[in-house]
Amino acid sequence: EIKALILAGGGGTRLWPLSREEVPKQFLKLAGDYSLLQTTIKRLLPLCGQEGIKIVAGERWDSQIAYQASDVGLKGNIHVLEPEGRNTAPAIALGLAHLMEKGATRETPVLVCPSDHIIQNEKAFHDALKLGLLALEEGKLVTFGIVPDAPETGFGYIKKGEDRGGWNDVSQFVEKPDLKKAKEYVQSGQYLWNGGIFLFRAGDMIDSFKEHLPEIAKLMEGGEMAMVEGFKDLPSVSIDYGIMEKAPSVAVVPLDACWSDLGSWDAIYQQGEKDGNRNVLKGDVLADRSEGCLVQGDRRLIALSGVSDLLVVDTADALYIAPRGTSQSVKDVVSTLKERS
Ligand code: GDD
Ligand code: MG
């Protein structure tokens, strides 16, 4: 049976003013009635069961996680407490150490899922997983690849190698290339985006840590307690830079499942349900002769009149307005605010 590690320790400011350091994206209800963490849990429950899902995140999120998880039927001891944020490689190592102590073996398939994106087509996701399980038999570390539609620089790029019947060997993994490279990759048609979901046999990943991140591997040998104690001295490194770029035996399974990382207000507009005037409206909104707008608010009535293609995000203490298509610039707003404070 598959074990799942959900990574829920990331911050994220690209959805300011809704996401803050105190309220990261994974806990927000961005696409419907459930938070991104909750939809991730719901996707995994039929696959891994109550016992098979662990959520790795810092202690400060404990009550938030317990509350959101039990709300979708996941109860019990599910939270693997991370002493502090050290990025995804140490988080995955800690999760693995925990699973091994709870009875996983080197052969156990482990699925690592981020909690910051949505997958609309669940069936396509399950089909991709089945193919991924086949690739595991060859000792591969499996990634899931999304056909890119823009030269995004916030994703990893995977160059497809030999076709293995439903999945491919990976001939190159490039984490977050610059814009020039990203454009070349998209144009070439040979690259996929890394969806941030990984599947591997526990033992294969442990061996990869030994090979590429020996400092972390060494600490893992002492088990979960030792990891917790030594955690703060570990290098802060993502699994993508630390292992996936370097590992020789990586596979990619195409994931055509309406994946979106909801990484920006523009992405949320794209993904959202449009009304007859192409508006995506959440909250108490009146849109008069207005089109192509995203409005997100729940505090008070918001009225648009005669405007088009705007992003409007209203919270108790901050209001963000920008033309649609420019939401990446929110990070400039955030850094200016940081300088000011
Ligand atoms: N527990 C824990 N601890 N979780 C973490 C930490 C940490 O220190 N840092 C990040 N995470 C969680 C985030 O909450 C998110 O769910 C997931 O791990 C991925 O981390 P991100 O920080 O969001 O990574 P990214 O978006 O920059 O890049 C990754 O995802 C892209 C797709 O969304 C990479 O895998 C890229 O290659 C990929 O394209
Ligand atoms: Mg992300």
Written overview of the protein:
The protein is α/β, with parallel strands linked by helices and 341 residues long. The chain has 2 domains: 3-141 and 194-260, Spore Coat Polysaccharide Biosynthesis Protein SpsA, Chain A; 265-340, no CATH class. Helix content is 33%, strand content 26%. It contains 11 helices and 17 strands. Strands 6-9-7-8-10 form a 5-stranded mixed beta barrel. It has a 4-stranded mixed beta sheet with strand order 12-14-16-17, covered by helices on one side. Strands 5-11 form a two-stranded antiparallel ribbon. Helix 3 runs antiparallel to helix 8 and helix 6 crosses helix 7 (214-220). It starts with a strand and ends with a helix. Bound molecules: guanosine-5'-diphosphate-alpha-D-mannose (GDD) and magnesium ion. Magnesium ion binds at residues 114, 116, 261.
List the helices and strands and how they pair.
Blueprint lengths: L2 E5 L28 H13 L4 E6 L3 H10 L7 E4 L5 H14 L7 E6 L3 E2 L2 H15 L4 E6 L9 E8 L4 E8 L3 H10 L2 E11 H11 L1 H7 L2 H8 L8 H6 L5 E5 L4 E2 L4 H7 L8 E3 L2 E4 L5 E3 L5 E4 L4 E5 L4 E5 L6 H11 L1
Parallel strand pairs: 1-2, 1-4, 2-3, 6-10, 12-14, 13-15, 14-16
Antiparallel strand pairs: 4-9, 5-11, 6-9, 7-8, 7-9, 8-10, 16-17
The structure holds guanosine-5'-diphosphate-alpha-D-mannose (GDD) and magnesium ion (MG).
